[in-house]
Amino acid sequence: MAEKYKVDKDLVRMEIVDFTFPEKEYRTSRHDTVLPYNWALGPTWTRFFDGLKEGKILGTRCKKCNKVLVPARTFCPICYEDMQEWIELPQEGSIETWCLVNYKYYGQVKEPPYIIAQIHLDKADCSLTHFIGGFNLSDPDKVRGKMKTVSRVKAVWSKEKHGDIYDIAHFKPV
Amino acid sequence: MGRAVAVIGTGQTKHGRRDDLSYPDLVREAVKKVFEDAGITPRDVDGVVYGSMPSMMEGVAYNHFYFADALRVVGKPLLRTETCGSTGQSVAHTAIHWVASGMADVILAIASEKENEGDAQATMMTILEPFLQVVIGGAPIAFSLQSREWMGYYHIDDAKAREAASIVSVDSHDGGLANPLAHIRVKLSKEDITNAPIITYPVRFYDVCPISDGACAVIFASEEKAKKICKKPAWVKGIGFRGEEYFIGDSSKAVWQSTIEASKEAYKEAGITNPLKELDVAEVYNPFSYQELMFLECLGLCPPGEAPDYVIKGTFSPGGELPCDPSGGVLCTNPIGAAGLIRVAEAALQVTGKAGEHQVEGAKLALSHAMGGAMQFNGVTILGSEL
C-alpha cells in the first residue's frame, strides 16, 4: 500500500501515485474519487494564518471565561461568547503528549517517521497540535529515550512561509 | 426515559475480509439473520435506522440509498445516524428514542462497514478539516497520543502499562477464538504481543484492531410488542451519549469527560451505583488495547489511574469480577460503522444466555460502549435480562 502514495510538496498532502484505472480485476470494480474543495477560512483563521506568515502564533481570549485558545477562535466553545481580544503567544511551551508516527498512509502530511505532539504554549489554556523535530527519528527506541528527557519545546519556522499551519516547521527541544 | 424498550433479535454477519460478497449482499446477510432470530417479518417493522462510516470510506454518497433493498426499507421511514466510531451506539440510541417516544413499536437498526474496499486511514484523514488539525489524522496517532497523555497524567510506568495492555490483547484474542463470527481468531501469548512491530509507539501490531468487513442488525421493540413476540427479550436499562469540543487540545483526553458523563447518565437511568459489582459483563470499545485501559477508568469500572493494576490482577479477564469483551471486542473485529452496534448485540446475547461458546455464565446485566468523532463522542447502552 505504501508504494501507492507520495507526498505532493505543493499540496502538503500524500497523493495517489498510480492515479489511473488499472486493468479490471475479476470480481472487483476499481473506482477512485478525487474532489476539489476551496475552504473559506473566515476572518479569524485568516488573521491566524497571516500571523504565522509574520512568524507570530496568535490566539484569542474569551471575554467571559478569560481562556486563551490557540489556534485563534471566533467564539469560545464553552461560553459561546465572541473571542475578539487577540493575544500573541510565547513560542515556547510544554509537551502534554506525543506520538512517533512510523508508518505511511494516504493523506498524510509528511513522510514518516515524524512526531506529533500536543504542545501547551505558555499563556495558552489549551494545547496546540504540531510536530516535534530537529533530531534523528529513525530509531524508535532512541526517540523514546530522547523524548523522556524533553519537556520544553520551541517553535522552528519554515524557510518559506505560505500562510498555513506548516509555516511552523516543527517544535524543537529547548 | 419514556417507554420501556427491548432488544428482540440480533443478527451479525461472519466478520472478516468479505470480498466474497457485494456490499448490499453483506448487509442482507445480517438482516436475514435478525428476522430469523426475532421470528418476525419486515411487515412487523415500523421503521429503519442505518449508519456507517462517512461516505468517503464507503465510496458512494449515502450508501443507505444503495442498500435500500437490503435494508428492507421499501415503504417505510428511514433515519440515518453517524458519529464515526460511535455510529453503532448512535444507531441503537436513535432506534431506542424512536420506540421510547411512542412514535413506533418495532424498529430495525442496522450498521455496516466494508472497510477493506476503501482506505480506512485515508478516510480518518478527512474527518479533520484540512488546514488546522489534519496533522493528527489517522486513528493510531490520535489514540497513541491519548494513551501517552493518560500514562503521563497518572504517572503510569511504561512497563506496567505494557503488561496490562498485553493482558487486554491476550484476553480479547482468546475471546475472538471462542466467537465463530469474529474476524481475527488466533491464540496469542503475551510475548507475541510485546515482540510485535511498533505501529505508533507505544502501540504495537497486536494492540491494534484489524480492518474488517461486517454488518450487524438489531430489532428494538416496545414492552407490549416485546412481550408478545419474544420469549426472552434483553431490556434497555439505560443509555448515555456525550459530545465534546472539536479541537483535541481544548480538553483532557486522559480524563475523558464524554466517556465519564455518558456512562454516568446510563448508570443513573439503570439504577446502577457500583458498576464493577453490579454489571456481569462489559463490551467496551477497544480498537486499541491501551485505550481499553483508559476506558475502564472513565466508565467508572475501576478508580482513575488504576486500570493497569486491576487488569493485571485479572478483574476484567475471563472468570474475573467483570469479564470484558468476551466476544473478542473491536481488537478482533472492527467493521467500524458496525462495531458499536455489535457491542449492543453482544450485550443482548449475553443477558439472554445466547452467546454460545463465549457466554459469561449467568450474565444478567451488560454494558456496551463505543467512542467516535475526532475523539469527541462516547455512547453507552446498558441491557439487562429483567425489565
Descriptive report:
- Helices cover 13% and strands 30% of the residues of chain A.
- The longest helix of chain A is centred in the first third of the chain and has 12 residues, at 42-53.
- With 174 residues, chain A is of the alpha+beta class.
- Chain A has one domain (40-173).
- Chain A has helices at residues 42-53, 140-149; strands at 5-8, 13-16, 58-61, 68-69, 85-88, 92-101, 114-121, 128-132, 152-157, 168-173.
- Chain B has one domain (5-120, 209-384): Peroxisomal Thiolase, Chain A, domain 1, CATH 3.40.47.
- Chain B has 15 helices and 11 strands.
- In chain B, the strands form 2 sheets. In chain B, strands 3-2-4-7-1-8-11-10-9 form a 9-stranded mixed sheet. In chain B, strands 5-6 form a two-stranded antiparallel sheet.
- In chain B, helix 4 (87-100) crosses helix 15 and helix 7 packs across helix 12 (289-298).
- The longest helix of chain B has 21 residues, at 158-178.
- The relative contact order of chain B is 0.20.
- Chain A binds chain B through residues 1, 13, 27-28, 31, 33, 37, 39, 41, 45, 69, 71, 77-78, 96-103, 105-110, 116-118, 120, 126-131, 140, 143-144, 164-165, and chain B through 19, 56, 59, 119, 121-122, 125-126, 129-138, 140-141, 144-146, 148-149, 152, 198-201, 245-251.
Keywords:
A: 174 residues; alpha+beta; 5-stranded antiparallel beta sheet; 3-stranded antiparallel beta sheet; globular; B: 387 residues; alpha/beta; Peroxisomal Thiolase, Chain A, domain 1; 9-stranded mixed beta sheet; two-stranded antiparallel ribbon
